[in-house]
Design a protein that fits this description.
Helices cover 22% and strands 31% of the residues. The protein is α+β, with helices and mostly antiparallel strands. Strands 1, 2, 3, 4, 5, 6, 7, 8 and 9 form a 9-stranded mixed beta sheet that branches. Helix 1 crosses helix 2. The longest helix is centred in the first third of the chain and has 14 residues. The two termini are 28 Å apart.
Length: 181
């Protein structure tokens, strides 16, 4: 297994942030900004991302896999809970199928496995990948009460995931209390 390095965003150098930004741009060319602009967003000054950690697999100076986690307050049936958000999971397209994605996700979700968080909530376009790692899809209605159109679904992917699949998860409305991630 390649070494996965967890970083607090503020401890990354600008060169490392740029390497991560280039990876994100390679994986999602239409959906992320230009790498130099993304460096600023990776500095760690986002109040919606407490306990923000960026996990990276490096090959020399090049980021070849990455994932991000942070604490996120959500409201489930009117009860506020803190969940572990998982975002930006990606592997260099030339290295897919190498197991790096599963390895980085397992490490990123370790705070759930060790009890620091009750569960993780996130969205994906590849639900089968996460279900093989012990997650499940959920069919709740999701909203963002802080948005201009609060009843509009804040997720942009088709599938919402809860990890672990054994987590107690209600069927009611979930307010992300902020934008999707």
């Amino acid at each position: 297994m390649p070494e996965i390095t967890p970083h607090a965003p503020e401890t990354l150098t600008d060169e490392q942030r740029l390497a991560i930004a280039h990876l994100l741009k390679r994986v999602w060319p239409e959906n992320v900004g230009e790498p130099r602009e993304m460096v600023e967003r990776l500095r760690g000054s986002d109040p919606l991302k407490p306990d923000w950690t960026i996990y990276v697999i490096w090959q020399g100076e090049r980021a070849v896999a990455s994932a991000q986690t942070f604490a996120r307050k959500v409201s489930i049936d009117g009860e506020e809970r803190i969940v572990l958000a998982l975002a930006g999971v990606c592997v260099d397209p030339d290295l897919r199928g190498s197991g790096m994605g599963a390895d980085i996700v397992r490490l990123a979700l370790a705070p759930v496995d060790d009890g620091r968080y009750e569960l993780s909530l996130y969205q994906t376009g590849v639900p089968d990948f996460y279900c093989r790692l012990g997650a499940c899809t959920v069919g709740n209605v999701f909203v963002n009460s802080h948005a201009e159109e609060p009843e509009q679904n804040p997720w942009w992917n088709d599938h919402v995931i809860v990890y672990p699949a054994s987590a107690k998860w209600p069927a009611g409305k979930v307010d992300l209390l902020g934008p999707g991630y």
